[in-house]
Structure formats: C-alpha cells, structure tokens
Amino acid sequence: MNIQLSDQFNFKRLLRFTVPSVAMMIFTSIYGVVDGFFVSNFAGKTQFAAVNFIMPLLMIMGAVGFMLGTGGSALVAKTMGEGHNEKAKRLFSLFIYVAIILGIVIAVIGFIFIRPAASLLGAEGTMLDDCVLYGRIILVAVPFFIIQQAFQSFFITAQMPQLGLFVTLVAGGTNMVLDALFMAGFSWGVAGAAAATTISQMIGGIVPLVYFSRQNSSLLRLTKTKMDGKALLRACTNGSSELMSNISMSLVNMLYNFQLIKYAGEDGIAAFGVLMYVNLIFLAVFIGYSTGIAPVIGYHYGAQNKNELKSLRKKSFVIIGISSIAMLVFAEVLAKPLAGIFVGYDAGLMDLTTRAFRIYSFSFLFSGIAIFGSSFFTALNDGLTSALISFLRSLLFQVAAVLIFPIFWGIDGIWASIVAAELVAAVVTLLFIMIKKKIYQY
What we know:
Elements: H1 11-42, H2 45-81, H3 85-121, H4 125-139, H5 142-157, H6 161-185, H7 189-213, H8 229-238, H9 240-263, H10 265-302, H11 306-343, H12 347-360, H13 364-379, H14 383-435, H15 437-440
C-alpha cells in the first residue's frame, strides 16, 4: 500500500516513508567514501589531500541544487496541500529549468577560475596541479549534480522516494565500478576518480530528468511553465538555509585545512579528509530523515492539520534521539577500523586519524537536532529561521571554535571544536522551536 503525504503517520508509517530517503543519503555518502578509499590507497596521500583540499570549493558550486530542491519542494508540497496540483507542477518545472540554467553558468565560471581560486586558498606545486585537474573534470558534471540534488527532494514530494533511492543506487554503483576500473585497473590516479564521479553524476541527473519529462505515475511532471519571480524568490529564500549550510560547511572546511596545515601539515589534511568522508555517512541518517519528512510537514502545514504537525515533531525527536546515541556508540567502536580502511598504510597517520575520530564522534549526539530543526522550518516555509539555524551551526559557531580551541589544546582542539559547535547549535535550535511553537501551532 502506497503511503501518501496526506496520511496520518505513526512510527511505523513514518519510518517506512523516510527510510528510502535515509538509504539514498547513506548510499550517496558511501560512494563518496569509495572515491576517497581509491584515491588514498591507489594514488597516495598527496593526491588524497589535494582532492579534499579542492572539494569544499566544488561543493559550494553545487549548493544551488540543494537550495532549489529543499526550498522549492517545500513550496510545492504546501501548494499541493492547499489543493492546487496543476500549479504545483508548474512551480516544480520552473525550479528544475532554473537549476539547469544556473548549473551551466556555474560550471563555465568555475572552469575558468578554479586555478587562481585553488592557489588563493593555499595550494601550490603538485597539489595545485592535482586540485585543478580533479576540479575541471568534476565541473563538467556540475549542471547534472545540481539537478540531481534538486530531484532528491522532489522525488519525495512526488511520493516516489523508492525511485529516488533506485536512481541513487544506479549512479552510486556506477561510480564504484568506475573507480575500481579507472584507478585500480588503469592507474589513472586523481583524474580517474574525477572521471568516475563525473559519469555517475551525469546518470544521477539525466535519469530523473527523463522520468519527469514523460507521463508518469507520480504527483509531479515537467510541463510548460512561465517565469514566476515571486515563487522563485520564495523558494530561494526558503531554501537559503540549505544553501547557507553547504556554503558554510565548505568555507569552514577550508578554514580547517588552513589550521591543519599549521598544526599538523599534510597528514592533518589527510586525517580531516577521512573524518569528512565517514562523517557524511553518519550525518546522512539525519539529513535523509529530515529531507524525507519535510514534504510531509509541508503538506500538513498547507492543509492546516495542526495535530499531525505536533505528532510529527514529537515522533521526529524520539527517532533522532535514539539514532544519535546509536551513532556515537558505533563511531567509538569503529574508529580504528574505519581509519585503517583509508590510511592503514601509514601508522602515524592512522593513529592521528583514529584519535581525531574518537573526539569528533561526540558531535553526533547533538548534530541531528540542528539538522532536523533547519529542515523543519524550511518545510514550514520559514526560510529565515531555517537559514539562521544553519548559519549559526555551520559557520559562526564552528569558525569561533576552530580558531579558539587549538590555542589551548593544539590539534585536539581542532577535532573538539565541532563537538562544541554542534552542542551550542542544538541548544539554539531547541530555543527556536519553543519560541515558534505558538506561531505554527505544532
């Protein structure tokens, strides 16, 4: 039996609806991890450091897809909740067409300026060349990556999360196979990793584009549309939290790299790269759940089902709380084996990475609260509050912590800074939820 946005959700129904989104995010993260595994083990730690050095800049370029996907899907879900299905299709089409155009423009600009940008960030010599090579190949797929990210949210709004998971599995599986072929088989190094990622992102963007362009069984389809500046502005404003979160995360990662070069050199960047890859898998649970439930919240907000909004909020905090504790336990137990997968060939680097992960893992106790809180307010079409939570969590608190903590605790202070930032962000998020309770009556 299909689950619809208009349903009332108990724990079982809620998990059934959101698990495909969680699995989709986890698998997306896993094939990113496979990328890192092959680069580290078949190209060496210098190229591994180069990939991790340039990746934040590439993620900034692709962040517009998250903005249009989350902000646009919240508006589309609310419009469907109000009973305007044809209008919802036109808005959906507008957001996807704009994403395609922006993707092409961003890719061209990025291709031209990636070398001076990488140099400005501090890359030099061989690392600079590797950064530029990897980046320019990846930029070919940026338009597809942007629409892939946008479609991830719209698959859920269209009540087709399983199809979104299937597309992710196909794209991710392609990436893994090509990583093994290009790097382990052909020894193409960092260029092979970039080529594998580029091809997989093209698949991830083209398949849903073809699906939604044709007659289908979902709630959405790409149709003729017209420019609606007001709706586009609302979607961008509403999705600005996700844009802010991705840009801030990338900027903070650059700052981490700057601090790590000073305190630990190239090994520090490599260790941080491992943390980021593994961190993606753990946080994918929170991001996937929050992405999966957002259209449901948006629909019931549009339909003014206040009791269901209250129920969804309470159940979500129970699920996130249990997941947070489980993740901390798993992270502490698996710290050494996970470090060994990436950098087991270097004993000193493995020890550094293992210690870093055991400190860093305490952040999982708190990170889910802010991630869900930001998505919750996006679904309520309160982009300002959502963006403020993202800004405080992913930029202000982390920047302050990573600049101050190392002064007192050295390299350990860098790993601990994220824990402190997530704790403060969780407290601020809970305050916002309490303050806004009367306004949205959840």
